[in-house]
Amino acid sequence: MLGRSQRAACHRQGPSLVARLYTRHEPGAIHMGSAVLEYHINEESRVLDIEHTRTPPELRGQGVAEKLCVAAFEHARSESLRVQPSCSYVRDRYLPKHTEAHDIAVHSVDSATPGLCISISWLGVASLRLVEARRRNPLTAAILARCQSFLKECAAVDLTHDGPPPPGVVRVVLLESSGPVFSSGHDFRDFASASAAEQRRVLEVCADVNAALREVPQVTMAAVGGACLAGGAQLVASCDLVLAHEDASFCLPGVRSPGGFCHTPAVAMGARLAPHKALELALLGSEIDAAEAARIGLANSVVAASEWPTAVDRTANQLARTFSKSVADGKRTFYRQLVAPNLRDKYAVATDAMVDMFSSPAYQESMRAFLMRGGKK
Question: Which pTM value belongs to this model?
Answer without folding.
Answer: 0.86
